[in-house]
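Example (one chain per record):
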Amino acid sequence: MAAGTQDDPWHLRTPPGSSRYTMYRDPDALVCQVGTTRLTYRLSAVEDLHAWLRQQADWVPLGAADENKPAADGTVEAWGRSPDNPVGGWYGLRKGYRGRFGMYLPPLLEELGLAELTHDARNNRTRAR
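Predicted structure:
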């Protein structure tokens, strides 16, 4: 398994398997590089999402959505922006690029052995291990 550093990032695929991207930890954030687009998330996102999925105790829809679009209730995406999550709002750090939490974080949890993920063409779900 990759070390999750800039020199040895995790090589991941979106849940449907249609796109590749990398993620790594830097001192201040979790960096997600999708082509030329760079998204950044709070470092606590992995542990917090895993804890929330454990509380759900069942499959949870991903519900990935861009920042300017609403997230469906009860999804990973909605939780990643909710004022009720541990950080009180967005896990995404860069305005305009804070969405897609439900697309990019669950595959990392799967890579780390913290979650299971479906890999269908649409409507994917995840649950904690």
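Caption: DSSP finds three helices and seven strands in the chain.
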